[in-house]
Known about the structure:
Blueprint: H1 33-40, E1 68-70, E2 73-75, H2 90-106, E3 122-126, H3 133-145, H4 154-161, E4 166-171, E5 184-188, E6 202-208, H5 217-227, E7 228-239, H6 255-270, H7 281-289, E8 292-303, H8 310-325, H9 327-337, H10 342-357, E9 363-373
Parallel strand pairs: 3-4, 3-6, 4-5, 6-7
Antiparallel strand pairs: 1-2, 7-9, 8-9
Bound molecules: S-adenosylmethionine.
Amino acid sequence: MSEPTTKPATEPASTATAPQPAAAQNESGILPPQHWAQLAEEGHDDSSDFEDAGSSTASLSSSLLNYRTIQGRRYHSDQGNAQYWAANDDAQNEALDIIHHVITLLLDGKLHLAPLKDDIQKVLDVGTGTGTWLPRARRLALSYAQHGSSPGIWAIDFADEHPSVSVLGTDISSIQPGWIPPNLQFQIDDCTQEWTFPENTFDYVHIRWLFGSIVDWTALFKQAYRSLKPGGYIESHEPSVSFLSDDGTVNDKTAMGQFGKFFVEGGKKMGRSTTVLEDGIQRKGIEEAGFVDIHEVNLKTPVGGWPKDPKQREIGKFQQLAVLNDLEGTMLYMSHIIGWSRDELTVYMAQLRRELRSKDIHGYYWQKVVWARKPESA
Length: 378
Ligand SMILES: C[S@@+](CC[C@H](N)C(=O)[O-])C[C@H]1O[C@@H](n2cnc3c(N)ncnc32)[C@H](O)[C@@H]1O
């Protein structure tokens, strides 16, 4: 991945520019940066369910692994055609671990929805995610201790739960932990390049949260189809990038309502959709690849401790923690692509943090899991 070269649609606003009316929006629906500067002058309640987990520092291994540094944050090195929008340093990786916990809670502890048989042998997790888990786990221990649960990553949890299954996790960043179950391996691999696994290798392919990373989803699912054994399962799990509410507390004029627009616009500029869920890309691509017996489930994911239901409240609090953990590492690249300066982003993020912490704002987002089978006759 290289520093984004895409020209911003509009020049970033300079401080000399006269402030625009707060409501002024461009075609993408993104409010101008001045809107958030104006808003910052107002006072706000900063109550939070969790403490912020602090900011990131670049790892010593950066130079060895040729990671890129963009405005002080670490991003993946050149890998094939890969272009990924989030930082890959500690703060962002912590956020990923917490998201994994959110998803595990949403799925009642299940690591898959596809009906896997007990005798499966090989599993592939594409874009497996986080690493350097041990130091992060230590720092997160305080937050997690009171909840009696621990962070982890999908591939590690799956390998732990299925000791007789060989699990392979691939990613463009070497951010996985060194201590892992003996039946788990990691491999650096750009999943958008031609897969080199022999045909009919895996019993199950798991692909989660690759929105904004894939140019051609059908091609990706076709590669999964080819590498799966007949009767094997694909499972695709993707979120919407848009925060919603049922009572209007999240809307186009709020920072939470604006959040998704950065990603939708940035994804368009990258040529890598971030509206995978909204556009039904998972089912369409899986069907086109030749899979049968397609099922899907939508998961409503609260953000913040506002739900009355205790389980939903717990999920919402962890989701809030995940987003607050590293807003910058999540948003910096996309905001750069759409032409915002870091300072402008900082002002916007201050308001976003206030809204994320507010109990009066009842935000949530959707996630969609689609799973399907490669025909036995294939
Ligand atoms: C949002 S994270 C999700 C991680 C993990 N799947 C999970 O659900 O916890 C996306 C991951 O996909 C990886 N990624 C992005 N583009 C990729 C590509 N072309 N090939 C392989 N991995 C990729 C990123 O490095 C990152 O670790």
